[in-house]
Design a protein that fits this description.
Blueprint (H helix, E strand, L loop, with lengths): L2 H57 L2 H12 L4 E8 L5 E5 L9 H4 L8 E8 L2 E10 L2 H51 L13 H36 L9 H12 L6 E7 L1 H9 L1 H19 L5 E5 L4 E6 L4 H21 L8 E7 L6 H17 L4 E3 L10 H14 L3 E9 L5 E12 L2 E4 H10 L3 H14 L2 H4 L4 E4 L2 H5 L1 H12 L7 E6 H6 L1 H13 L3 E7 L8 H5 L3 E4 L2 H4 L6 H14 L3 E4 L5 H6 L7 E2 L7 E2 L3
Parallel strand pairs: 8-9, 11-13, 13-14, 14-15, 15-16, 16-17, 17-18
Antiparallel strand pairs: 1-2, 1-4, 3-4, 5-7, 5-8, 6-7, 10-11, 10-18, 10-19, 11-12
Length: about 650
């Protein structure tokens, strides 16, 4: 029971006790007063009537005596009058039944008034003439008591209703600061730090509000410091201090996670020997400044061509990971890179197209990290040996389909819902129990089995992401997969769905009309949160309001603040797979620990991804993560 109801009930009870007590006192006093009044009236009547009957009794005039008694009896205040003549023993009785108007019979049956009688002897000198017995009629008492009681009940009821209303509004106004404190406390418990509460006028509550505001500031400061710690650790461990670009360690982690995800693109390695000439001519300070300016120019020019990661992996070597692009787009990226480098070479006083080489290898199906690095390095060495600016590593793998063929196949598959499914279990760290299952899809085109790594790049390229997500969500619900499976099913949303308002409206309507929404969870890529935070906020609100859950995928991959966790409030985060490949003795374990602490501090579950061996999993035990997944438990086919 709330404090408001407790106080309200207490006041209500006290008011009832007071009212009942006052009503009882008033009732008993009125009853006693009416009883005494009837007794007094009965005495007066008995004495007066006895005196007036003396002459008639002396003369033996029965008629006159009856007439006199009838006059008194017809007044209605007496129930019975009994006259007994002592001369001959004759007895005359006058009776009036107990019928009272405007008073309910049940009230009369309560017997609130005892029978009041008065018996007297009428005498003439020493001679006794008759005995007179008068019984008072209780009608007067009941009538007066009933009207007094009903009037009191009406007045008390009106006062009671007014008191209830005034108490309700008064308590609401008085306890409003306490209600605000409770709501503020709930937000703090959920790690939501809003503006300070206004200080109430009540002195006791004022100190409480001040304490809550102070606590909120301190907790907010703690989480801000954790966010800053993550940023500093990233700069320290994953960023090259001269260029401001990611270093070799970050590039290797991204390369591992990139090859484990469905995507396309290319890896480029460049060796800029002209920077050695700048060093010999002008010294290391000018060289470092040149490297810094070159890094800024490359980021400005290349990020507009295709999404990529640019890293400095050695003194004069740079790596360019184009995470999603076809070969034509990679060629445009390469030409822009060459033009940007030549501009900086000219500014440094060196000859363009000399003393630098670039090797490129395009991603192929099922390629490993070592093979990708070997192909790129071979292309780089080939370009340097032949004194060429760049060299493409030629792969024997042929492209499955053209872009238009992919469009036709994917559109048909989405329309007909021809996708097959696998799922990968996510196990809890503290017990052998599945917490959720992450869904993967594949496609059969003719006699070929096409996995997501082959067709997903074209889904994004052709802007079919939201249509594919709708198809997958509808398929798993229509086939009863959500209903049959007790663990939540995680669905990876594409980048296109995050910013597609039409998909938002469809998902909102779909979740409202779907049972078991608590068994649907949605993975949102962290890169999408940074690219369109407003759209992600709208989508997350729709998911949360309809009873489903969502989490952040590839958590910790992006260089940016973790403040978005406060706004989105995800149920879980999935650590980027790159953390599973870091050696435990590297400083990256500190960054991983800081990321876990940020999420756990916000009461967000942390799921480790990319686990392939038990040794990897043991490295995360000291971090107290909640769950893990990877090819330690490979994906399983689903029979729909």
């Amino acid at each position: 029971m709330t404090l408001f109801r407790q106080i309200y009930s207490l006041l209500f009870g006290l008011f009832l006790v007071v009212v009942i007590s006052l009503a009882y006192v008033q009732f008993t006093q009125t009853q006693s007063f009416l009883t005494e009044q009837m007794k007094s009236d009965l005495n007066n009547t008995s004495n007066s009537l006895g005196i007036m009957l003396v002459p008639d009794l002396e003369a033996g005039d029965i008629v006159s005596a009856e007439t006199l008694i009838n006059v008194i009896f017809e007044g209605g205040y007496y129930q019975q009058i009994k006259l007994t003549w002592l001369v001959d023993g004759k007895q005359q009785v006058w009776e009036n039944p107990i019928t009272i108007q405007d008073v309910p019979q049940w009230f009369i049956d309560l017997g609130l008034f005892q029978t009041i009688r008065k018996e007297s002897t009428i005498t003439s000198g020493w001679l006794q003439l008759a005995t007179l017995e008068i019984t008072a009629h209780p009608g007067f008492g009941y009538n007066e008591l009933w009207h007094t009681l009903t009037n009191a009940i009406i007045v008390i009821s009106i006062l009671f209703l007014l008191a209830i209303l005034l108490a309700r509004f008064g308590l609401t106004w008085i306890l409003k600061p306490l209600h605000d404190i409770a709501e503020h406390a709930k937000e703090i418990a959920q790690r939501k730090f809003g503006p300070d509460m206004a200080l109430p006028k009540t002195s006791e509550l004022k100190s409480v509000v001040e304490a809550f505001n102070s606590m909120s500031h301190q907790l907010k400061s703690i989480f801000s410091s954790l966010d800053e710690e993550v940023t500093e650790l990233r700069k320290k461990n994953l960023v090259d201090q001269v260029s401001g670009l990611p270093n070799r360690q970050y590039m290797m982690g991204r390369l591992n996670s990139w090859l484990s995800e469905p995507s396309n693109g290319a890896l480029m390695m460049a060796k800029f020997d002209w920077l050695e000439e700048v060093h010999s001519k002008y010294g290391y300070q000018v060289r470092d400044e040149t490297i810094h300016l070159l890094a800024e120019k490359m980021q400005q020019q290349l990020n507009d061509i295709a999404p990529s990661v640019i890293a400095r992996i050695a003194a004069y070597e740079f790596a360019f990971l184009i995470t999603s692009a076809e070969k034509e787009q990679c060629s445009k990226y390469l030409q822009t890179l060459i033009r940007t480098v030549n501009q900086e070479i000219s500014k440094a006083g060196c000859k363009p197209n000399e003393q630098f080489a670039i090797g490129i290898a395009h991603r192929s199906d099922q390629i490993t990290v070592s093979d990708m690095l070997a192909q790129t390095d071979n292309a780089l060495q080939k370009a340097a040996a032949e004194n060429k600016v760049f060299h493409w590593f030629e792969s024997d793998e042929k492209q499955l389909y053209t872009r238009e063929q992919w469009r036709s196949h994917l559109s048909t598959a989405i329309t007909n819902k021809d996708f097959k499914f696998k799922w990968q279990p996510v196990y809890l760290s503290d017990r052998d129990e599945v917490s959720q299952r992450e869904l993967y899809c594949q496609l059969n085109i003719g006699d070929k089995e096409i996995h997501a790594g082959q067709f997903m790049p074209y889904v994004e390229l052709l802007s079919l992401g939201s249509l594919l997500d709708r198809c997958l969500i509808e398929t798993i619900t229509e086939t009863g997969l959500v209903e049959r499976n007790h663990e939540p099913i995680a669905i990876n949303l594409t980048f296109h769905s995050l910013s597609d308002r039409e998909f938002h409206r469809w998902l909102n309507k779909f979740l409202r009309n779907t049972h078991y929404t608590q068994r649907l969870v949605f993975d949102i890529p962290e890169a999408g949160v940074y690219s369109d935070p407003e759209a992600c906020q709208e989508l997350c609100t729709i998911i949360r309001d309809n009873g489903a859950h969502f989490g952040i995928d590839h958590f910790g991959r992006q260089f940016g603040s973790m403040a978005y966790l406060h706004d989105l409030r995800p149920s879980y985060v999935k650590l980027d797979q790159s953390f599973a490949y870091y050696d435990e003795h590297e400083h990256s374990s500190e960054l991983c620990r800081a990321l876990v602490n940020v999420a756990r501090g916000l009461d967000i579950q942390v799921i480790v991804t990319g686990i392939q061996e038990q040794v990897q999993l043991e490295r995360f035990e000291p971090l107290n993560t909640h769950a893990y997944m990877g090819y330690i438990y490979p994906p399983e086919k689903i029979q729909l």
